[in-house]
Design goal:
about 270 residues; alpha+beta; two-stranded parallel sheet; globular
């Protein structure tokens, strides 16, 4: 009951925001010329932001329902849907299908860097800087990455390489292991070192059945199935008036009926 009330309250807040946007839209009729166009553009943008927020809350409601969640892939594939008179394109990716900057293994990061096109020397330098940030061996004073953006500030990384790696990085997984059913092709290659034909065959099978048996080459990789508690959500929304908005969020499912989910990230 509490979970349903929480979900309903969140959706009512978002839907209420959309109603306000519709009311404001009526004031545009009283304006003229450039002022009207600017006002309409502002309202369209606000409607799109509200639509994106509504989509995130609808996705969270689905993740909280075991039957709906079982039908939703968590590997980041794009899904299109109609919502509240607009269109949304969204993806859901289990954060356990990413490399955790606080708990990941150095050899996996090294192979991920090499796959991204760095030289062995640069990859080695970056891994060293990444480990130095975490102060290995000093558990009492260990420093954690609060955001993946902090990885981008390491001297040897640079903006271009960071943008390339960012989709496979997280600070929310809390595990050195990676879920192969949510990992990207690049991360599968980095974690397994498996031949390309085996990676391609696994990906094709995963797209068709979502959880096919993993190939033998995966047996020694740092893989483990996710507990399904933390998800990244990306939404692109186009509202009925033509406004566009993007929203990225990370949602944690708490298992607490009084507060069934939290948002560690909302951007």
């Amino acid at each position: 009951m509490n979970r349903a009330m929480n979900q309903g309250s969140a959706l009512l807040v978002v839907l209420g925001g959309l109603a306000v946007m519709a009311l404001l839209a009526s004031t545009v009729l009283a304006l003229s010329g450039g002022e009207a166009r600017r006002t309409r553009a502002t309202i369209n943008a606000a409607e799109a932001r509200e639509l994106a927020a509504a989509a995130v809350h609808r996705i969270v409601a689905a993740l909280l329902d075991p039957a709906e969640r079982a039908a939703m892939p968590g590997d980041g594939r794009a899904i299109e849907a109609a919502l509240l008179g607009g269109r949304v394109t969204f993806s859901i990716r289990d954060e356990r299908g990413k490399f955790d900057l606080n708990d990941g293994l150095p050899e996996v990061l090294n192979r991920l860097l090499l796959a991204a096109g760095t030289s062995p020397r640069q990859a080695s330098d970056i891994v060293g800087e990444w480990q130095a940030w975490r102060r290995p061996g000093e558990a009492k004073h260990r420093r954690l990455y609060a955001t993946i953006g902090e990885f981008g500030t390491l001297p040897s990384v640079g903006a271009t390489l960071y943008e390339q790696l960012a989709p496979d990085l997280t600070v929310h997984a809390g595990s050195a292991t990676i879920d192969p059913y949510a990992a990207s092709p690049a991360l599968l290659r980095a974690a397994t070192g498996a031949p390309e034909p085996e990676i391609a065959a696994f990906l094709a099978s995963r797209a068709a059945t979502y959880q096919p048996p993993p190939p033998a080459a995966f047996e020694t990789a740092p893989f483990a199935l996710s507990d399904g508690r933390i998800f990244g959500i990306a939404v692109e929304a186009v509202a009925a008036g033509g406004g566009r908005a993007q929203l990225e969020a990370v949602v944690g499912l708490t298992g607490d009926p009084a507060k069934p989910y939290v948002f560690p990230r909302w951007q």
